[in-house]
Design goal:
The chain has 384 residues and is an alpha+beta fold. Helices cover 32% and strands 16% of the residues. A hairpin with a 4-residue loop joins strand 14 and strand 15 (354-360). Helix 1 packs antiparallel against helix 13 (371-383).
Length: 384
């Protein structure tokens, strides 16, 4: 069932990965690890469709949800390296309409560290707005912050993509997906996409809900009070929570830079592997060492105003919380990356020079790191 390459030193990773299929926790999945930018684990297995007729292949793509945020953050930091974007500048310098509702002083960095106070739009939006970039950015430009910016943090689960993406677009003249494709995915030969072309649809894995957990989930909280800030963050427009969207051409082809990246684990591990090794891989500069340090410096830590659990953020990346098992990218506190709904994750650990990624199509219910990913991460570090 499990295929691919695995350095003998990481045999335990292969065993844990295989066990995830045997105990039916995974339907189809892939895991990839690089050390010093070189692949040491590149495994895949299971099936890519819910009918169990299509095996997961080496080039199977899957929607990685919020793991996309890390890619978007890399694009923003790269524009800083190019002198195109200033993180300390007001957002309104690049996006004048954003100054509405007393937001003229909010700095770009507040969009990346989830302290801008804009995790949701209060006015109920039509389902079609999800795919209307202008409608969403206009709604956010007009929105008043839910809290005083920079006084606390709360996960901008979906608005992050429009907020950071519009600043990228205004500053660079290119969308996040276009910039990533031309400047990073192409040169590094990454099979990762924000805005998936139709010729790749046949390679996409179907998503399937996992077993219903015994304990209340974030979805239960949303349904308990659909008017709350948390509910609005994840379900306004309501089409954000419609599973039928996720297999549609419209969803795959759109650019939703917070949630709809499609990628292989190999691609995500390679990208983070570059960041784990100073920012350059195979002659391609992804980020400068200075940008990497800035990106992984803590900017927010504590109980998240949206998720109501402790989170820790740098600039665009979640940071490891070694004291919390489901929020730890391994034992080294300097690791940084981003998990995604359902179980995917990618991260870099500069101390160990590791790039790691896990992608999966059977959705888990964890808010932060999925237990399947945590078990693989533990196996990686036990193998060093």
């Amino acid at each position: 069932m499990v295929q691919g390459i695995c350095d003998p030193r990481f045999a335990r990773v292969r065993e844990v990965f295989a066990e995830s299929f045997e105990n039916r926790l995974a339907l189809g999945a892939a895991v990839a690890v690089t050390i010093d930018g070189k692949p040491v684990v590149d495994l895949w297995g299971g099936v890519a469709n819910t009918d169990r007729t299509r095996p997961w292949q080496a080039d199977t793509l899957v929607n990685v949800f919020s793991t996309t945020k890390g890619i978007t953050a890399i694009v923003a930091h790269r524009l800083v390296d190019e002198g195109v974007l200033d993180l300390d500048a007001p957002v309104a310098r690049y996006w004048p309409e954003f100054a509405q509702a007393d937001k003229g002083t909010i700095a770009v960095r507040a969009l990346l560290d989830h302290r801008a106070g804009l995790p949701a739009v209060r006015t109920v939006l039509p389902n079609e707005a999800l795919f209307d970039w202008g409608a969403m950015t206009s709604a956010l430009a007009a929105e008043a912050p839910w809290w005083e910016p920079d006084t606390q943090h709360g996960y901008h689960a979906v608005t992050y993509g429009w907020l950071v993406g519009e600043v990228v677009r205004r500053a660079s003249g290119r969308t996040v997906g276009q910039y990533f494709r031309e400047e990073l995915a192409g040169p590094l030969e990454l099979d990762a996409h924000i805005g998936l072309a139709p010729e790749h649809d046949a390679r996409c894995a179907d998503l399937r809900s996992g077993p219903r957990p015994d304990t209340p989930t974030l979805f239960d909280r949303i349904m308990a009070d659909p008017t709350s800030m948390t509910a609005r963050a994840f379900a306004n427009p309501l089409s954000m929570l419609m599973p039928s969207n996720f297999a549609s051409r419209r969803w795959r082809g759109a650019e939703l830079p917070a949630v709809n990246g499609h990628a292989t684990a190999r691609a995500i591990a390679r990208l983070y592997g570059a960041l784990a090794c100073g920012g350059t891989l195979d002659g391609v500069r992804v980020l400068t060492p200075e940008s990497i340090e800035r990106a992984r410096t803590e900017h927010a830590h504590g109980v998240d105003a949206v998720l109501d659990v402790p989170t820790r953020f740098g600039l665009g990346f979640m940071l490891s919380q070694p004291a919390i098992r489901d929020a730890s990218f391994g034992p080294n506190p300097g690791a940084f990356g981003h998990p995604g709904a359902g179980g995917s994750v990618g991260f870099a650990d500069p101390a160990a020079r590791i790039g790691f990624a896990y992608t999966v199509n059977r959705m888990g219910a964890s808010i932060l790191l999925d237990p399947r990913a945590t078990a693989l991460i533990d196996a990686v570090y036990a193998s060093l």
